[in-house]
Amino acid sequence: MRIVRIVERTVALRTPLSNARSDFSQMTATIVAVVSDVVRGGRPLAGYAFNSFGRYACGEQIRERITPRILAADPNSLLDSTGRNLDPIAIHACGQQRERRGGYAERSIPMGTVDVAIWDLVAKIEDKPLHAVLAERYGGGTVRTHAPVYVGGGWYFPGQTPADLKAEMARYRDAGYGMVKMKVGGPSVAEDCKRIEAVLSVMGEGDALAVDASCAFGREAALAYARALAPYRLRWYEEPCDFLEYETYAELARAYDGPLATGENMACAKELDHFLAYGGFRADRDIIQVDPPLAFGITEYLKVLAVAAKHGFSRAAMYPHGGNLMCLHVVGGLGLGGCESYPDTFGIFSGFGEEVAIAGGRASLPQSPGIGFERQPALYAAMRDLAGI
User: Fold this and answer.
1) Where are the alpha helices (DSSP H) in the chain?
2) Which residues does 108 contact at the CB level (< 8 Å), separation at least 6?
3) Is 183 annotated in the active site?
4) What is each CA distance from 142 to 145, 307, 313, in whole angstroms?
5) Which of 124, 181, 183, 329 is catalytic?
């Protein structure tokens, strides 16, 4: 058993949306295929992944550094102890050989994207959905059928009106979602409060709405928004500033009674450890949003969970960023708080696929082997063409 080919391709997202800091008009993503010599149904098994939205394509590092290391390794060194499957931890270490410590963000996304594809392949070799493999190995053995989900929506786009925002949220509510998230920080705080009130007129109580500032604020603006948001009793106040601004987060934690959320820009478990040591986050209410494909993958995310637990955070506090099928498996398999969803936002990458049904704020977990991109026809067409199988 061996990996015979790792290939990648850049794909344009082609969306006019923006958050408080940047637009996505030029945004790209990388799709990856890891092809093995294991043959099922007359075709070699392949694992697939893509890097989460909001970060540009990362193909060069995959192509020039990670892939050559993995393909040059002794195939037996990349197998698990049974010799009947690949070992994601061994492959993860192999892909990072000769890299210096520190500067993790430079390679966290390419390695994370390859790692997720490896896990897809591992689950396919076991002939099980990925969430079941994760549950058996790291989720206490409980294989779940559903996972909590919420929509990451409420983006800014040219000509948007409050009526447009209300129609968007009503569409999500009617599709079975019980919680939504919207962007803030683009216009004035007064204008954003009007937008929040428009959404709440559709969703009801504040607990059904989170807001995301996309790291747009400095200290004064972050605190001003905290004061303005307090009366709404929202689900959480996300990414008011860069996570490295520990002192601002600590001050917000003292001043803002509602939950705070951050982590999607963290590159590894070590960064989370530093933040929780100095950022004032509260284990009884605050939310951690590390994104597996952006932070060295599922293999590293297991370390993220251990760090969070060390600081008193339960798995219910973990809401991985990235509204995609990969994260749905991670949330369902590891018993986390909830999964973000982008039902109609990013072209072929949108949604969870044909197997997943949304009802009552929960998503049914896929039952196809691996992640199940094969049940997302437009995306799988691109992935299969890349793999050449």
Assistant:
1) 59-61, 67-72, 88-95, 105-126, 130-138, 162-174, 189-203, 219-229, 246-255, 269-278, 297-310, 325-334, 377-387
2) 267, 268, 294, 295, 296, 300
3) yes
4) 10, 22, 20
5) 183
Between CA 196 and CA 232 the distance in angstroms is 9
pLDDT of residue 107: 93
Per-residue model confidence (pLDDT) at position 102: 80
Tens digit of each residue's pLDDT (9 = 90 or more) over 232-262: 999 999 999 999 999 999 999 999 999 999 9
The two three-digit tokens of residue 169, written as one number:
């949220």
SS3 sequence, 202-270? HHCCHHHEEEECCCCCCHHHHHHHHHHHHHHCCCCEECCCCCCCHHHHHHHHHHCCCCEEECCCCCCHH
The DSSP H or E segment spanning 100 is none
Which H/E stretch holds residue 287?
A: strand 287-288
The Cα–Cα gap between 382 and 281 comes to: 41
Q: Give the pLDDT confidence of 328-347 residue by residue, as tens digits.
A: 999 999 999 999 999 988 88
pTM exceeds 0.90 for this model: yes
Residue 41, Cβ neighbours under 10 Å: how many? Answer: 6
Helices (H) and strands (E) in the chain, counts: 13, 12
Instruction: Give the model's pLDDT for residue 349.
Output: 93
Pairing state between β 180-183 and 209-212: parallel
User: By CB neighbour count within 10 A (0-12 exposed, 13-18 middle, 19+ buried), where does 146 fall?
Assistant: middle
pLDDT digits (tens, 9 = 90+) for 126-182: 999 999 999 999 999 999 999 999 999 998 888 888 999 999 999 999 999 999 999
Report d(CA 189, CA 286) in Å as an integer: 23
Q: What percent of the chain has pLDDT above 70?
A: 100
Binned at pLDDT 50, 70 and 90, residue 73 comes out as very high
Which string of b and e fits 178-206 if b means at least 16 CB within 10 Å? bbbbbbbbbeeeeebbebbebbbebbeeb
Catalytic residue from among 131, 181, 321, 329:
321
Told to judge if 166 belongs to the known catalytic residues of this protein, a careful annotator would answer no
Neighbours of 27 (CB within 10 A): 18
Structure tokens at 181: 């998230």
| Confidence at residue 159, expressed as pLDDT on a 0 to 100 scale | 87
